[in-house]
Structures are given as C-alpha cells and as structure tokens.
Amino acid sequence: MRNVIVENMRKVKKAVPRIEDKVKIKISFGKSNVTIRGNEFDEFLVEKIISAVDFGFDVEDALLLINKDFVLEFIDIKEHTRRKNLKDVRARVIGTHGKARKTIEKLTGAVLVIHDNDIGVIVDSVHLDAVIQALESLIRGAKHGNVFSYLEKQNVYRRKFDKDDLGLKVGDDVHEESLDEVDDDLDEGDLGKD
To answer: Using N-to-C axis directions, what is the helix angle for 9-22 and 40-55, rounded to 10°?
Structure first.
C-alpha cells in the first residue's frame, strides 16, 4: 500500500478510472492523498502515473509510463540558471506560441509540461539524455537553433547505429568508400610496405 500526496485532486479523480482500466490496482482517496493497493510493481507504476497527472500531464501521456522504456523526469529551472527573472527562462523553453517546446517534442518524441519553475518530461529512455541536455542548455541561454541542431544530430546518430545494425552494412556510403580504398590499396600493392 502506497500513499501519494496530491495537489490537484480533481484532475487525479478524473484520471483514476482510466488508470484502473489499464493497470489492475485499487485506488482510494483521502483529503489530500491517494492510497494505492495492489502488487508492489503496479503500486510503484501507478504512483509515477498519478504524480505525472498531478503535475499537469494529460492522462494518456502519463499512461505512457506503463511501457518500461518510458521515464518521468523533472528539471528544476532554478538549479540551472542564476537569472532572477525566471519568467523569461520559462519563455525560452516554451518559445513563441509554444514553438520551442513543440519542436523538442517532435524531434525526440518527448512530452513536456512546464509548471511553475519545474519542467516535467516523459520520454523514452533512448532520448532521455538528449532531452535533458537540450532543456538545460536552453535554460542556461543557448541559442534555440543550436539546441535543435544538437537534437537532430542525436537522432541521426541513433538511427545510424540502431540495435540491429552494427555499422557493417555495405549499403552505407561510408563503408563503401572504405571498402573501395582497401581495394585500391590492394591493387596498388601498398598494404604491408610500411
């Protein structure tokens, strides 16, 4: 049995039927807390989901945490900047009309919610480090274009070396050039004459 302290009880109560449909667990309510009963792993999982919903995530986004590859992380803006005007820092992360936030979400598949001076992130573990690095860079004052370029490079790198590819496919341009150079060296007899 776990007790979770909740600030936004109304939103959590609306989410509970959906959570109980997805995870076999029993949830009851107190004045400012939620009690979770079930097996230990499900209790832990639902505690994370309820924390996400309470923070401000949509229920469907919070339910991504059921998948073991997804992680919930929080970043405190105050820890990464000395600026006193945190409203401007939050504005940098959000961007004009939410453009910066949407771009980060699009490039990484993350879901971002900004609440007071905290940023909540639900993202798969593969993109976690890149998203955290990008957000911390924006908070510190990096240019948006540089941050987006970094995220794009990270995605290209991950696609290039996915789990099934060991980097040995002959179809890659880089490997074809390397093989052609070796063939040329063999033809010229340059190998072994050093």
So the answer is: 140
